[in-house]
Specification:
This protein is α/β, with parallel strands linked by helices and 330 residues long. Helices cover 42% and strands 22% of the residues. The strands form 2 sheets. Strands 1, 2, 3, 4, 5, 6, 7, 10, 11 and 12 form a 10-stranded mixed β-sheet that branches. It has a 3-stranded mixed β-sheet with strand order 9-8-13, with no helix packed on it. Strand 8 and strand 9 form a beta hairpin.
Length: 330
């Protein structure tokens, strides 16, 4: 099967150079599509000179991660569709190992790669998506040693959009990213839609890319805070089955109340503004939910097996401090 790799970039030439160079060393032949989200840093001339093999699609303005990747996915010719962040550096055998599990089972709709920290490659940044009963979507195995990863592919809830391979048939079935997310949690939304239709996701533990964490928006920036807050509620309304909401609504509400209190105490209005922005979207979100769940093949009670207990506030803050400490060393 043919493999296409889509890389979306926005004023990221400083990291894109290494990303493209690493892809040129891959052991698996592939089509490379670079979607330029309206950059003004010389991305297109550099690609024309240094990566003439790449299909460069230049957009007039920034469509975000979701919209930019959708443009690339529509242009791709492959049956195996790989998304890769522009701030990643793939190991030479990354693509070969990432696509391998698709041959094992036709119901595997996506394969997650392992993102490690670029400056600390022995530590996992993300090995997919894990979902809490409070509807918090977190990076699977974040901050754990790479050496502790399983030796063989294992099934997980869903894949991070930073390093993932989708089966074209799966995306044809459920659709592409919801572009209104712009950035953040659009991959979790897609993971839910795939699960609702019965598509499986596995982790390829030996498919590694080094990742420059939050190189685009900045870790903890108001922009990122607003989008994460808004997109969390969008995802809850659109995707999570009623059976799950009925059982875990209290944990979900508790998390959002704590988040609002935190925002007030720390004077971070973006966390609150992102949540209030969802109110005017509710009619559209509810309509999308009805259409999506009308087609579901897997009952909510079965999907509930993927939910893990909520992380305690103290533990969550400790994880944030540990992540900040790792990022600060970059």
């Amino acid at each position: 099967m043919r493999t296409s790799v889509i890389v979306v970039t926005w004023n990221g030439l400083h990291v894109l150079r290494d990303c493209v160079a690493a892809l040129a060393e891959q052991t698996l032949p592939h089509e490379l599509i670079v979607v330029d989200n309206g950059s003004h840093d010389g991305t297109r001339p550099w690609l024309d000179q240094h990566a003439p093999h790449a299909k460069c699609i230049r957009l007039a303005y920034n469509l975000g991660f979701a919209g930019g990747n959708n443009v690339g996915l529509r242009a791709a010719l492959g049956d195996q569709l790989v998304l890769l962040n522009n701030d990643t550096i793939a190991a030479p055998n990354f693509l070969e190992r990432l696509v391998a599990p698709l041959a094992d089972d036709e119901q595997i709709g996506s394969v997650a790669g392992v993102l490690t920290f670029a400056h600390q490659p022995e530590t996992v940044a993300s090995a997919g998506i894990v979902v809490g009963r409070d509807a918090v979507h977190r990076d699977l195995r974040a901050l754990t040693p790479v050496a502790a990863l399983p030796a063989q592919p294992i099934e997980i809830f869903g894949a991070s959009g930073g390093a993932v391979c989708f089966r074209r048939a799966a995306l044809d079935d459920v659709g592409l990213f919801d572009e209104r997310y712009f950035n953040y949690l659009e991959d979790a939304d897609l993971a839910w839609r795939l699960r609702l239709r019965g598509w499986r996701c596995v982790l390829a533990p030996d498919a590694h890319v080094r990742h420059i964490y939050s190189a685009t928006a900045g870790q903890g920036s108001p922009f990122k805070q607003r989008l994460l807050a808004r997109n969390r509620l969008r995802l809850i309304v659109r995707c999570i089955p009623y059976a799950v909401l009925r059982r875990h609504w209290l944990a979900i509400l508790r998390y959002d109340l704590l988040a609002v209190c935190y925002a007030l105490l720390r004077r971070q209005p973006a966390i609150i503004g992102g949540r209030t922005a969802v109110v005017r979207e509710l009619p559209d979100l509810i309509g999308a939910r009805r259409r999506m769940h009308k087609r579901k093949r897997v009952p909510g009670a079965e999907l509930e097996q993927w939910l893990v207990p909520p992380v305690a506030v103290r533990e969550m803050l400790a994880e944030q401090r540990a992540l900040a400490a790792v990022v600060a060393k970059a």
